[in-house]
Design a protein that fits this description.
Elements: H1 2-16, H2 52-65, H3 90-94, E1 114-118, E2 122-123, E3 129-130, E4 133-139, E5 142-151, H4 152-170, E6 177-184, E7 207-215, E8 220-222, H5 223-226, H6 230-243, E9 249-251, E10 263-266, E11 275-276
Parallel strand pairs: 5-6, 9-11
Antiparallel strand pairs: 1-4, 2-3, 4-5, 6-7, 7-8, 7-10, 9-10
């Protein structure tokens, strides 16, 4: 009898209970700033974990967005975010191989780093003349103060010397080398313009004389005034030495009185190697 009464009590209480589930409470926004911006509602569903590479990408993005100012030792001057100068090692590294024309030979003398024009053969009396002549105006980005006529062997030697000798040696001095002062190019004459002397390499388009290096800030390093004088003199001596190899003959102020104010560079071929004085 007791169990009948107990079952009846349970049935009575079940009839009074709500058979529908209780609705979820309305979501509440979390205020994340004083301006009234609210956080995005988060899902109650589980979120898939990010892969390690994705986390690194997000971290890098956030770091790039938030730049922390950096000060010098005194704590007053902010460091610039501009890129620094290229390291000096890049100059000789970039100079090991000359730039060639993309079509494999369409540039002047087959190199796009040599700028100028191909011209008609230069003729002259006797041994004078240039069968395959070019007029060079710029080599490896360095301008000649006046275009010089020469053959391609001399043009490529000049390009090699500027790229591997001049540019690394001058570096950033005065903003870098931008020009070569040409004292002489092709000329139908004897050596040193002396009567009875042998025909000069200038008369064959195989020589060029350089008297100064022009710098980006407008200053110049001249053979006449800077040879054996201070830092500029040391750079000139290095330039003289690095020319010995690309050129067959290199003459400077220590050679004779005819070369006190310029370097004579030519591509004469000697069995014993380059002749440098």
């Amino acid at each position: 009898m007791k169990w009948i009464v107990f079952a009846a009590a349970i049935l009575a209480s079940g009839a009074q209970a709500e058979i529908h589930p209780t609705p979820r409470p309305a979501p509440q926004d979390d205020v994340v700033s004083s301006r009234g911006a609210t956080a995005i509602q988060t899902s109650t569903r589980p979120v898939e974990r990010m892969m390690s590479q994705d986390r690194q990408a997000v971290t890098s993005t956030e770091a790039s967005r938030t730049q922390v100012p950096r000060n010098d030792s005194s704590g007053t001057v902010q460091m610039s975010d501009r890129p620094r100068f290229r390291p000096d090692t890049l100059i000789p590294a970039a100079s090991r191989t000359p730039r060639r024309s993309r079509d494999g030979g369409g540039g002047l003398c087959g190199r796009s780093s040599i700028q100028g024009t191909a011209i008609a053969p230069v003729t002259g009396p006797g041994a004078c003349g240039i069968p395959d002549a070019v007029r060079v105006s710029r080599v490896s980005g360095v301008q000649l103060t006046r275009p010089a006529r020469m053959d391609c062997d001399t043009a490529t030697a000049l390009d090699d010397w500027v790229r591997t000798g001049l540019l690394p040696t001058i570096g950033r001095t005065g903003g870098g080398a931008v020009g070569l002062q040409v004292a002489a190019g092709y000329a139908c004459r004897s050596r040193n313009s002396q009567a009875g002397a042998r025909v000069s390499e200038h008369a064959k388009g195989r020589a060029i004389d350089i008297s100064a290096i022009q710098l980006a800030n407008g200053s110049r390093i001249t053979v006449l005034t800077d040879w054996n004088r201070g830092a500029n003199g040391r750079m000139l001596r290095t330039l003289w030495r690095t020319a010995c190899g690309p050129f067959g003959t290199v003459l400077g102020p220590d050679s004779d009185r005819y070369h006190l104010d310029h370097f004579h560079l030519d591509t004469a071929d000697y069995r014993s190697g380059s002749y440098c004085r």
